[in-house]
Write the structure tokens for this entry.
Amino acid sequence: MKLSELTNGLCAVIAEKGVKQLITLSNQALSLGADLVELRLDLLEEEFSIPDILRSISGPKLVTIRRKSDGGSWIQDEQTRINFLLQAQQFGAQAIDVESDCFHHFQASDLCLRILSFHHFAETPNNINALHKQFESLQPDLVKIACLANKNSDVVRILGLYDQAKIPLIAFCMGSIGFPSRILSLTKKSPWMYANFSLEMVNAPGIPTLNDVRAIYDLKNLSTQTDIFGVVGDPIGHSMSPVIHNACYQFLGYNGVYLPFHVATADFEAALKGYECLPVKGYSVTIPHKEKAFQFASSCSSLVKEIGAANTLVKTKDGFYAENTDATGILAALENRLGNTLLGRKVLILGAGGVSRAAVFALKKAGCIVHITNHNRDRAEKLALEAKVICLDWNNRHNFNSGLLLNCTPVGMDPLVNETPWDSNSFSKDHIVFDTVYNPIETRFLMEAKKAQAITIDGLEMFVCQAAEQFKLFTSLSASLDVMRNTAMKKLRKTEV
Ligand code: NAP
């Protein structure tokens, strides 16, 4: 297929110091499903022959020799660079990437696209619309614009360029704030997106790896019809939510995409208002935005009102509806294991932070007799008073020798996996032990409870249940818990390596 006909493609960026490695990785990327490779020849540290390289790679290739001033590594003279690019055009490259100031050196050709590229590694310039028009006036075959996003509104401005484009366009923002635009550009008819397949560092902040893109996103099905969801937080790169939600969309054949939206605390409201034009239909909300999400919503569940925080926002015709699926997810995880038996159960919650708050109100509503304890007693007392539950002293927590024990502290979480909030001698087989920590899945807390023959429930169960509740609110479909759990486990295991 001609590159000019490509849609929803994946371009593997290959930036290597050695020619042999460049060729090997290019062929590997193509065999793994990349539609084309971008050969970043500016990184080569040995002499090379353009015709030999092009001949050795069996698939569409785009040749780039990026100057240092444009964010690349090329430090030799400009004429040599132009000569190499002219050779690439002549000896079988399907595309060359050149900048506006040297564009006039390259004649139009049916066989080789001339991509006019613009990179800005510090910002998305205010005059990006005017620059885009100026680039189009040079009549390239394709315009590529890649700028760093410092604000969420930069993402909106970059994606807005597609509305005025007369020539095929690849426009996206770099950086973690900009990441969603890399994927969403394909819903705007961008012919391809870039992913890294190099062992060397590519100077392209926020560029995902080829393997991650292939594992998480269903690029070929992205279109204007695709429903957009995501998780909003700061930081957000570590979130497992995109992995499990997208896996479930693909499993059910639902036309949706779920993205990580990096939004700083001060930008929450402005970002969500700006993203209405994308439009985003629902958000999972994580640290530090859960209280803000509750305040931002125009309606919410009674549980959210009590907790004062939400982890889910669903777009309705009257604004956003807020839910707290940390709370409903804890209930669902318990009910999946214990059936409908929560009424009258004795519960001790360890910790008095955000998740404890969700657990306290949810379990109280479900009819449990809730106790709470925290190493800083004041915090537990305050929450107990507000929720009208019982506060225990942290030093007396082991007197709670039966019933449901719920760890809502981060104790035992990677990397402090040898820690536990409970003395192993104080577990009994009459405990039901639930850890909200899911990294690792088997915490020391759970392992020691298991040894004492207590029933155990892990944090991944809660994570999957809260995600499944969100999935239902977002799509009106039932998620597959198995698909979500297996995908999350795979991802957690990879992170452990
Ligand atoms: P948070 O608001 O920071 O609250 C943490 C609580 O743990 C606070 O009460 C804190 O007490 C207490 N704590 C912290 N370090 C402690 C220590 N060394 N010993 C004893 N207590 C300690 O955090 P959160 O948002 O509630 O999250 C808590 C945990 O829930 C996270 O670590 C995460 O693993 C888990 N989580 C799981 C899911 C899931 O889906 N499975 C979802 C969200 C969160 P002070 O503030 O008084 O120090």
Summary: Residues 459-475 form the longest helix (17 residues).
